[in-house]
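JOB MANIFEST
job_type = single_chain_structure
chain_count = 1
residues = 103
[input]
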Amino acid sequence: MVLLEMSLVPMDAGESVSAAVAECVELIDASGLPYELHSMGTIVEGELPEVLELMQRCIEHLAVKSRRVTCSAKLDYRPGHSGRLRSKVASVEAKLGRSVKRT
């Protein structure tokens, strides 16, 4: 399984990109893959081919309206392990002996 953190920005969208983010979140949600949206990107969990294909779909979707799209991506590849979207945080919380702050 893979955790993919991605942040996509249409370069000609102006100061706010929340509308573009919302469009990508719709695609991510429709994929059925587990995900978390945070203030600087989105983390998706799945098999390598499916998360890469989803990232490509998001890029190509934004490219319909934007002449230039940048993407920052980070992958954590760990075969045989799933549910890490939650378990990685739970592991840190266990070591702290408390829940971490969430807004």
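[summary]
The two ends are 28 Å apart (CA to CA).
The CA atoms of residues 32 and 51 lie 11 Å apart.
exit_status = 0
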